[in-house]
Amino acid sequence: MADVPVIPQLDLELRHIRKRYGDFVAVNDVSLQVGKGQFICLLGPSGCGKTTTLRCVAGLEEPDAGDILIGGREVTGEPPWKRDIAMMFQDFALFPHMTVAKQVGFGLEMLKKPKAQIAARVAEVLKAFEIGHLAERRPAQLSGGQKQRVALARAMVTEPRILLLDEPIGALDYSLRETVMLELKTLQKRSGISFIWVTHDQNEAFSLGDHVVVMNHARIEQQGRPDEVLSRPRTAFVAGFIQGNNVLEGKAGLVRDGVLEVMTALGTFRVPLLDLAPPAAGSALSFSVRAERLIERPGEDVPNRIALRCITVEYFGAFRRHVLEGAGGTVVKYDQFGALPQSIREGENIVLGWSLDNGVLHRAPPA
Ligand SMILES: Nc1ncnc2c1ncn2[C@@H]1O[C@H](COP(=O)(O)OP(=O)(O)OP(=O)(O)O)[C@@H](O)[C@H]1O
Known about the structure:
Elements: E1 10-21, E2 24-35, E3 39-43, H1 50-58, E4 65-70, E5 73-74, E6 85-88, H2 100-110, H3 115-128, H4 144-156, E7 162-166, H5 174-191, E8 194-199, H6 202-208, E9 211-216, E10 219-224, H7 226-231, H8 236-241, E11 245-256, E12 259-264, E13 267-272, E14 284-290, E15 295-296, E16 304-316, E17 319-325, E18 331-337, E19 349-354, E20 360-361
Parallel strand pairs: 3-8, 3-9, 6-7, 7-8
Antiparallel strand pairs: 1-2, 1-4, 4-5, 9-10, 11-12, 11-14, 12-13, 14-20, 15-19, 16-17, 16-19, 17-18
Bound molecules: adenosine-5'-triphosphate (ATP).
Residues 21, 24, 26, 44, 46-52, 200 line the site of adenosine-5'-triphosphate.
């Protein structure tokens, strides 16, 4: 018997989605695959097309081109209730007059499930979300975190294949977010439901997502595992958007042994090409180096070195950021663990460097 390849079923597949509003293209050629039970974060600045992409998946917008498959089934053109999805919005959209128990059971009532079955399922979900004691309260009697849990319970009660979440914790107090994120991640893993989470907050995206999709100007600039996107930003936009990168612009020089020379205002640096084609000599390009990857007072064996002056030192909880200035006023950031003794003072001149493999050459943005 011939071996049949096992193709893992995808919860969602977007194939070349395009959505315009008049002449304005809000989503341009977006393709995405979501495996079973994955946690996907759509990350990007305001107006880049995240919500429109989500609304296309939900069936609240019809794409002008492209296909949407949910659980391997083509759903483009089908209404939201036929798509095996649920949605959760930033304002939670709870019904003000309904008790928590009623809200949570609402989706099952719409599906006309038997009363006893609804009661049993609601009790189970209230328990799982630890909101059983709130069953008879109305939204006005709940805290922000509790409303959030009720909204999530309501969305998950019908066990949809995919839950679409648009900035779901954007309205929560900052001090609550970390706890809520941890809870959500645990619930998501336990339920096996795929989450597609829209956010402009990179901390959310990188701490929650199994897969992070970075959008800009209606297109996907990069997608991959959080550690991949963090350590190897594909384009100058992604590198600049993600905290902690130094993005240096320059011109291409010679290539030797797979290493490109880049001439910048700060000096000439060596950056590995990896799988990129050698750029034409003199062409404009950029590369990045993460602020925590810089080395203080590097030895002669470190190929990339810059003379800088420390302008200021900023304190961010676990780390300390040095803002330094080099030739032509170019600013460089250097981050050091807060637990280490401070070794650079404001006003001090210092040489920083980085090893070859910490320079990441960028590709041109998608055309
Ligand atoms: N109904 C509409 N009619 C016209 N333009 C629209 C409509 N909906 C969205 N847009 C435009 O499409 C672009 C993408 O909007 P979208 O809401 O998808 O962005 P976003 O990345 O979710 O932004 P935010 O983080 O601010 O919510 C924006 O420029 C927006 O003004």
